[in-house]
């Protein structure tokens, strides 16, 4: 009941951020290109900051004892039992370019473990919700991943080939060649599509952090998939920059074995 209450509040906040982003999107559609470049060379817009400020204000009001970790304004009481992890616009480059796959990510972690996840795609009015131990939903309808036994049959997504770490390049390139089809640059939307059974595999190395993947964990697991780092370890607030998500746990195990064979050390093959 507690997680359901937390989720209802988070969805109410997502309703507000969706409207805010939609309003700003109209201005960007007709020539607005204002953004700054952060120290890590990624772009940030005023709307990224406004959305995160709105989320933080609402969460602090609703749950004053909870911590917050956000993409734009960092950590606030990060060692609390409950911590919200926020990416106000996952896919800021896509937002600036007008490609409507960007979304707001909200996750709630309990002792660092993601237990609630929301992917909200404002431009498409699509929302994924995951709660640990419950079936995941898309716009309120239960969803499931699809079976895919072999990498050779898999539709694979990946966010940005430029971010792949040098030590991961061999394994990553092999996955690109061995999978049946590839999709690039869909940001958080690709992970939502995986949970809904439209994509089989999502793989990323470098450029990822907790604000990018914590929301995905309850959603993908609640739809029947598996998501870990490249060593097969669960993704938490403290994980690093690699992600392997598969709709079929058997495919996930095959991918980890492939990465291990191509130089990714210390694989963990449990499915």
Keywords:
Fructose-1,6-Bisphosphatase, Chain A, domain 1; alpha+beta; 271 residues; 8 helices; 2 domains; five-stranded mixed beta sheet
CA(first)-CA(last) distance: 29 Å
Helical fraction equals: 25-40%
Question: Which structural category fits the helices and strands?
Answer: alpha+beta
**What's the total helix number?**
8
CATH architecture of the largest domain: 2-Layer Sandwich
Q: Which CATH top level class of the largest domain fits?
A: Alpha Beta
Biggest sheet overview: 8 strands, mixed
* Mean of pLDDT: 92
Strand numbers in spatial order across the main sheet: 4-3-5-6-7-8-9-10
Question: Which blocks of ≥5 consecutive residues have pLDDT under 50?
Answer: 266-271
Shape field = globular
CATH topology of the largest domain: Fructose-1,6-Bisphosphatase, Chain A, domain 1
- Please give the domain count: 2
Number of strands: 15
CATH superfamily of the largest domain: Fructose-1,6-Bisphosphatase, subunit A, domain 1
Over the alpha carbons, how many angstroms does the gyration radius reach?
Answer: 18 Å
Topology pattern, helix = H, strand = E: HEEHEEEHEEEEEEHEHEHHEEH
Q: What's this entry about, in short?
A:
By secondary structure, this protein is α+β, with helices and mostly antiparallel strands. The protein is 35% helix and 25% strand.
Structure description:
This protein is an alpha+beta fold and about 270 residues long. About 35% of the residues lie in helices and about 25% in strands. It is built from 8 helices and 15 strands. The strands form 3 sheets. An 8-stranded mixed β-sheet has the order 4-3-5-6-7-8-9-10, with helices on both faces. Strands 12-11-13-15-14 form a 5-stranded mixed β-sheet, with helices on both faces. Helix 1 (about 1-30) runs antiparallel to helix 2, helix 4 (about 170-180) packs across helix 8 and helix 5 (about 185-195) runs parallel beside helix 7. The longest helix has 28 residues, at about 1-30. Residues about 265-270 have low confidence and may be disordered.
């Amino acid at each position: 009941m507690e997680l359901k209450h937390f989720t209802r509040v988070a969805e109410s906040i997502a309703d507000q951020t969706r409207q805010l982003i939609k309003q700003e999107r109209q201005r960007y559609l007709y020539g607005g290109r204002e953004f700054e470049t952060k120290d890590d060379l990624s772009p940030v817009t005023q709307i990224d900051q406004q959305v995160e400020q709105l989320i933080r204000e609402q969460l602090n009001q609703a749950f004053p004892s909870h911590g917050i970790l956000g993409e734009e304004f960092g950590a606030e009481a990060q060692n609390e039992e409950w911590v919200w992890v926020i990416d106000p616009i996952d896919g800021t480059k896509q937002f600036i370019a007008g490609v409507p796959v960007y979304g707001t990510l909200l996750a709630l972690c309990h002792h660092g473990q993601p237990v609630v996840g929301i992917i909200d795609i404002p431009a498409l009015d699509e929302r994924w919700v995951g709660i640990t131990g419950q079936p995941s939903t898309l716009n309120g309808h239960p969803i499931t991943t699809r079976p895919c036994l072999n990498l050779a049959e898999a539709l694979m997504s990946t966010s940005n080939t430029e971010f792949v770490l040098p030590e991961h390049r061999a394994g990553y390139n092999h996955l690109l060649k061995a999978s049946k089809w590839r999709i690039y640059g869909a940001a958080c939307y690709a992970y939502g599509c995986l949970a809904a059974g439209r994509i089989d595999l999502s793989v990323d190395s470098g450029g990822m952090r907790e604000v990018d993947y914590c929301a995905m964990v309850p959603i993908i697991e609640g739809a029947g998939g598996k998501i870990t780092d490249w060593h097969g370890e669960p993704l938490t607030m403290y994980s690093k920059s690699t992600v392997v998500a598969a709709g079929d746990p058997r495919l996930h195990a095959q991918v980890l074995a492939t990465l291990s064979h191509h130089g990714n050390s210390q694989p963990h093959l449990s499915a």
